[in-house]
Write a structure and sequence with these properties.
The protein is about 25% helix and about 35% strand. With about 130 residues, the chain is α/β, with parallel strands linked by helices. The structure holds zinc ion (ZN).
Length: about 130
């Protein structure tokens, strides 16, 4: 049985958490050939939850392992497909991010890759501040 089809449901991978989600778009093969799987992942996006946080003015800090990622995750220079996510996430308001890291975040930047330890450090900072 061939389960390929000329229509496919488009999926994106969330930049922040790495999950694959449906975009709600349908992809059609131009020549209507049964060339596609049921789902096709076409690129990066933001899942519902992280889109919501992005819209609310948060930037996501995504911890990744520089050794496994193969590159130093300095802001902006790590490609999402190279990032080896540790699973640890934090969200910061954009203004707070600029305060803490002394670097501004671009308006369209949804996430920043950080090295292990950065999130833990940040959490201890914010905890001591609110205590
Ligand atoms: Zn997500």
């Amino acid at each position: 049985m061939n389960d390929k089809s000329y229509v496919s449901l488009e999926r994106h991978v969330c930049l922040v958490c790495g999950i694959t989600f449906d975009t709600g778009n349908l992809l059609l093969d131009k020549r209507l050939r049964a060339s596609m799987e049921r789902h096709t992942t076409t690129g990066w996006g933001l899942c519902e939850e992280h889109r919501r946080l992005f819209d609310a003015g948060y930037v996501a800090l995504v911890e990744c392992d520089p050794q496994r990622s193969g590159l130093k995750p300095e802001a902006g220079c790590l490609k999402p497909e190279q990032a080896w996510r540790s699973g640890r996430l934090a969200h910061l308001k954009r203004e707070a991010f600029a305060d803490v890291f002394n670097v501004p975040v671009k308006d369209d930047q949804a996430c920043v890759f950080v090295e292990p330890g950065v999130i833990a450090q940040l959490q201890s900072m914010t905890e001591s501040r609110s205590a």
